[in-house]
């Protein structure tokens, strides 16, 4: 449960960070928001994958 | 707007020269023949630093990344540099002359002296913000000199529009403000909202304790890159006394530091937009 809650908090913060970074290559708010969706999904997926790999490693070698 | 092409790109040697002269506020302006401006840069950085230093004094050594602590042993090259405010009391070391002068003036290697660094001072949050602000101000003066040097190199006179260094300074205080001023109002508002949300969330989960230079000086080096937030904390939140366990403190430290580093991206972006507009306007005026 705690894991899901952390991820629910992490997702909007990651999106806000991606918007700020992506806005460097755009001049309007709408273009920045549109361009942020794809990198957000990409990084969200990467971090989810990383967390899953760490959980598996923990399950195999620590628990 | 006319396209701009740099007529005389910097060599690596010149770029290093510009970078190093940037550590002495006003030096590059003086080298460019703008003596009054150079003197103003030096004076403003010295005044701001010593206004803060008057409050914090040798407590500044406690904030350093590398401590000049000697524990009664012989000084090494590292502790000697640290006693001069070097290698890193960030961002004060960007204002090198004032930092070295203040540190040299107050450094005491005795056991009693070292103990005093750990003692909180009255109004230290405000004082340490002011000394840090002098470092950031020195960085903005250097950015101004770099901009003037670029114009001079390309035989251009300053055109209309916002000075890139001022744009970066405005973004330091309130992210998105310079973007709005530069004509990107919607993007500016979006950036402000994103930044303030990340920062406010960090402050809420930590119950207002996340930004405190006395308690977490290393984190503060990143947090102060959002100058407006660091100022607000120095005046309102940092003097709070911790009297209970804070479960959200680590998350708050993370979020406010992330907000600081995001603001570094915003400052560079604001500088770049202002520079692009300024060069296009100066080229148009010249042709």
What can you tell me about this protein's structure?
The complex is a heterodimer of chains A (63) and B (287). By secondary structure, chain A is mostly helical. Chain A has 2 helices and no strands. Chain A has helices at residues 2-22, 29-61. In chain A, α1 runs antiparallel to α2. The model of chain A has no long low-confidence stretch (mean pLDDT 90). Chain B contains 13 helices and no strands. With 287 residues, chain B is mainly alpha-helical. The N and C termini of chain B lie close together (12 Å). The mean pLDDT of chain B is 88. Chain A binds chain B through residues 13, 16-17, 19-21, 23-24, 26-30, 32-33, and chain B through 184, 186-187, 189-191, 194-195, 197-198, 201, 255, 258, 262, 265-266, 269.
Relative helix content of chain A: over 70%
Characterize the biggest β-sheet of chain A. Answer: none
Rg of chain A, Cα atoms, Å: 15 Å
Uncertain segments of chain B of ≥5 residues (pLDDT<50)? none
Helix-strand category of chain B:
mainly alpha
Helix content of chain B: 55-70%
What is the averaged pLDDT score of chain B? Answer: 88
Question: Low-confidence runs of chain A (pLDDT<50, min 5 residues)?
Answer: none
Dominant shape of chain A: elongated
Number of helices of chain A: 2
**Distance N to C terminus of chain B:** 12 Å
Largest sheet of chain B: none
**Which structural class is indicated by helix and strand composition of chain A?**
mainly alpha
Distance between the termini of chain A: 18 Å
Outline of chain B, from the CA principal axes? globular
Q: Which quaternary structure do these chains form? A: heterodimer
Determine the number of helices of chain B (DSSP H or I, runs of at least 4 residues).
13
Classify the beta-strand content of chain B into a percent band.
under 5%
Mean pLDDT figure of chain A:
90
Number of strands of chain B: 0
Overview in brief:
Chain A is mostly helical. Helix content of chain A is 86%, strand content 0%. In chain A, helix 1 packs antiparallel against helix 2.
């Amino acid at each position: 449960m705690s894991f899901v809650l952390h991820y629910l908090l992490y997702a909007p913060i990651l999106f806000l960070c991606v918007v700020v970074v992506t806005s460097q290559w755009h001049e309007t708010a709408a273009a920045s928001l549109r361009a942020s969706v794809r990198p957000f999904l990409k990084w969200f997926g990467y971090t989810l994958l990383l967390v899953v790999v760490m959980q598996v490693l923990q399950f195999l070698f620590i628990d | 707007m006319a396209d701009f092409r740099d007529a005389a790109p910097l060599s690596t040697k010149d770029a290093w020269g510009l970078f190093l002269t940037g550590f002495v506020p006003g030096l590059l302006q003086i080298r460019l023949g703008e003596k009054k401006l150079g003197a103003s840069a030096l004076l403003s950085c010295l005044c701001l630093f010593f206004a803060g230093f008057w409050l914090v004094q040798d407590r500044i050594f406690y904030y350093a990344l590398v401590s000049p602590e000697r524990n009664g042993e012989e000084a090494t090259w590292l502790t000697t540099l640290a006693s001069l405010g070097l290698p890193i009391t960030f961002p004060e070391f960007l204002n090198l002359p004032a930092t070295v002068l203040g540190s040299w003036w107050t450094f005491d290697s005795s056991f009693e002296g070292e103990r005093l660094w750990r003692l909180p001072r009255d109004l230290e949050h405000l004082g340490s913000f002011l000394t840090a602000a002098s470092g950031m101000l020195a960085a903005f003066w250097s950015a101004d000199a770099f901009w003037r040097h670029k114009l001079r190199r390309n035989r251009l006179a300053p055109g209309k529009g916002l000075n890139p260094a001022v744009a970066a300074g405005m973004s330091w205080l309130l992210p998105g403000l310079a973007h709005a001023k530069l004509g990107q109002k919607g993007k500016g508002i979006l950036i402000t909202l994103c930044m303030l949300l990340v920062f406010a969330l960090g402050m809420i989960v930590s119950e207002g304790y996340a930004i405190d230079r006395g308690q977490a000086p290393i984190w503060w080096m990143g947090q102060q890159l959002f100058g407006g937030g660091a100022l607000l904390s120095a005046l309102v939140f940092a003097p709070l006394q911790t009297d209970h366990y804070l479960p959200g403190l680590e998350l708050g430290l993370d979020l406010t530091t992330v907000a600081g580093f995001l603001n570094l991206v915003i400052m560079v972006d604001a500088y770049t937009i202002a520079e692009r507009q300024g060069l296009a306007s100066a080229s148009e005026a010249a042709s």
